[in-house]
Amino acid sequence: MRMKIEINSNKNFILLPINHKHIIQGFLYNNLPKPLSDFLHNIGFFYYKRQFKLFTFSNLYSSYFQIITIQDNKKTDKYIKFKTPVTLYIASGINNFINNWNNNFLLSDNLKLGDNTVYIESIEVLPQPEITNKCLINTLSPITVYRTLENKKYHYYNPNDIDFNVLVKNNIKKKYALLTNTIINDFDFNMKNIKYKKIITKYIKKPKINKDFIIEAYDGIFEIETEPEILKTIYDVGLGAKNSQGFGMFSIIKNN
């Protein structure tokens, strides 16, 4: 299930750091009932030792945005000035999560998105589109896949790497097992890039102690060929890794 929310403000714009995915993620956690928020944030769902949150969200969309530089205490930072309203898409393979966000947003007046006071202007629960065995998709937030090296560092892969397809497919197997309680040993899967661009994101994990890490991801248009039932199941949890941090959400452009 997925939803589209329109976020507005009494001001003509909202201001967010150029790297603000952690702010949107926090906004979503803060707008769930505390027991559910704590479960998602601290526990989630496990496929053996791998943890999944089974939700994802898009980039923020606005009719106009501007990147600006602000100097404060001898430190220069980049921000994005979004014209209001802004649009955010949220999706989860667990309908209860979307229902709780929907209910909370309906009952809330003033909310905090970073340092901005905002309110929800509209909410729309979106139907799942028709999905066939070959689909053209567009990323709503960039896709990232990686392997963890012996030194605990990440090696990221781009869509031209053979392992990009392999890692996306292996990731799908785990999410499918969690969502359907069915293990699939193998299935046909091919993901062909039509056009893409590299996105470098600094994810701020712990803002107060300035702990962050760099994530390489890819926005673009891709053609996916696989079993429709598999893509239908994965549609609302995202492709690739770090979905709950705002990566891997996509929309269906057309079925081929």
Description:
The protein is an alpha+beta fold. It folds into two domains: 2-126, Alpha-Beta Plaits (2-Layer Sandwich), CATH 3.30.70.1890; 134-255, Alpha-Beta Plaits (2-Layer Sandwich), CATH 3.30.70.1900. It has helices at residues 21-30, 34-42, 95-107, 162-180, 228-234; strands at 2-8, 13-17, 45-47, 50-52, 55-57, 61-62, 65-72, 75-83, 86-92, 111-113, 116-126, 134-139, 146-148, 154-156, 189-206, 211-226, 250-255. Strands 1, 5, 6, 9, 10 and 11 form a six-stranded antiparallel beta sheet that branches. A hairpin with a 5-residue loop joins strand 13 and strand 14. This is CRISPR-associated endoribonuclease. It comes from Deferribacter desulfuricans (strain DSM 14783 / JCM 11476 / NBRC 101012 / SSM1). One of its GO terms (biological process) is defense response to virus. One of its GO terms (molecular function) is RNA binding.
How do the strands and helices of this protein lay out in sequence?
Blueprint (H helix, E strand, L loop, with lengths): L1 E7 L4 E5 L3 H10 L3 H9 L2 E3 L2 E3 L2 E3 L3 E2 L2 E8 L2 E9 L2 E7 L2 H13 L3 E3 L2 E11 L7 E6 L6 E3 L5 E3 L5 H19 L8 E18 L4 E16 L1 H7 L15 E6 L1
